[in-house]
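Incident log, structure service

09:12 report received: a user says their structure output differs between two submissions of the same chain.
09:20 pulled the input from the user's history:
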Amino acid sequence: MDRVEKLKAFLKENPADSFVQHALALEYIKSGNNNEARNLFEDILQRDPGYIGSYYHLAKLLEAMNEKELAISWYEKGMAAAKKANDNHAYNELQGAYEDLIY
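09:34 re-ran on a clean worker, output below:
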């Protein structure tokens, strides 16, 4: 059983597991299944806006999909969430990627 199938099996047991969804989204990106990855990241952040790592990966994915304005919006949301969580490391990563995109 490959990683994608294993992660899907875990999700059947616990469909709202943000960690497993995030891992599956990353696997989808590796295999070029960007739309499925995007759907998973968006689902995570709608349900669990405090899952900071997904903001960065969703915004990077949107950049790759040539959706610059939407990527900027997700970076901004991620920075706000990281600031709220006092996660300076995540904030700095999001801010760096955000600035690289807008300048």
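09:41 both user submissions now match this output. Likely a transient worker issue. Closing.
09:42 reviewer note: The chain has six helices and no strands. The chain has a mean pLDDT of 97.
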